[in-house]
């Protein structure tokens, strides 16, 4: 039986320092939530699990909605796992095209949404006062920089910080 090698401790200058751009973006998100309570991954998954039970059949909406596939469910679960633990849990919903949508809502003019389907493409849109952002990024297991920056931007607004508590 092989034993994994013990890794040496990181030097002091590297502890807690993100090296990749995505890591630096996640550090910025974490900085926006100082002292915020962490939510367990199982708590984040409960809403997604319930959604999948309800939306995994064709016509789940009473019309002709496409079902949320098992592959979409697993990609959505991986996206939730990639979120920093300090980010408040999003609202979870299904789109009629079979994608899973996540929403962080703080006010009518302060909202950010991300959806993911079986292809793993994250489509996102945000409204930050009078400013809008939208785009798409391939999900590769880490939170893409534009999404991390948008969450940081959302929760740096005092209204969102109050709504998250």
Structural features, described:
The protein has 165 residues and is of the alpha+beta class. The chain has one domain. The chain is 35% helix and 21% strand. The protein is built from five helices and five strands. Strands 1-2-3-4-5 form a five-stranded antiparallel sheet. The longest helix is centred in the first third of the chain and has 15 residues.
Summarize the structure.
The protein has 165 residues and is of the alpha+beta class. The chain has helices at residues 21-31, 41-55, 70-82, 145-156, 158-164, and strands at 91-94, 100-107, 110-116, 121-128, 131-138. It has one domain.
Keywords:
165 residues; 5 helices; 5-stranded antiparallel sheet; single chain; globular; alpha+beta; 21% strand
Topology readout:
Elements: H1 21-31, H2 41-55, H3 70-82, E1 91-94, E2 100-107, E3 110-116, E4 121-128, E5 131-138, H4 145-156, H5 158-164
Helix pairs in contact: 1-4, 2-3
Which structural class do you get from the secondary structure elements?
A: alpha+beta
Number of domains: 1
Count of helix runs: 5
**What's the helical proportion of residues?**
25-40%
**What is the succession of H and E elements?**
HHHEEEEEHH
Low-confidence parts, pLDDT < 50 over ≥5 residues? 1-19, 32-39
Total count of strands: 5
| Average pLDDT for all residues | 80
Please list the strands of the largest sheet in the order they lie side by side.
1-2-3-4-5
Provide the β-strand percentage band: 15-25%
Shape: globular
**Describe the biggest sheet?**
5 strands, antiparallel
Q: Compute the separation of the termini in Å.
A: 48 Å
What is the alpha-carbon Rg in Å? 17 Å
């Amino acid at each position: 039986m092989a034993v994994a090698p013990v890794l040496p401790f990181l030097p002091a200058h590297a502890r807690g320092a993100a090296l990749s751009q995505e890591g630096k973006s996640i550090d910025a998100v974490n900085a926006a939530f100082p002292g915020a309570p962490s939510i367990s991954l199982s708590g984040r998954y409960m809403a997604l699990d319930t959604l999948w039970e309800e939306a995994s059949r064709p016509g789940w909406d009473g019309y002709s909605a496409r079902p949320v596939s098992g592959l979409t469910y697993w990609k959505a679960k991986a996206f939730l796992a990639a979120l920093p633990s300090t980010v408040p849990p999003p609202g979870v919903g299904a789109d009629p095209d079979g994608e899973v949508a996540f929403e962080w809502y703080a006010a009518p003019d302060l909202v950010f949404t991300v959806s993911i389907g079986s292809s793993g493409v994250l489509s996102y849109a945000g409204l930050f006062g009078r400013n809008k952002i939208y785009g798409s990024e391939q999900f590769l297991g880490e939170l893409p920089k534009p999404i991390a920056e948008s969450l940081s931007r959302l929760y740096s607004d005092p209204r969102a910080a109050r709504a998250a508590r």
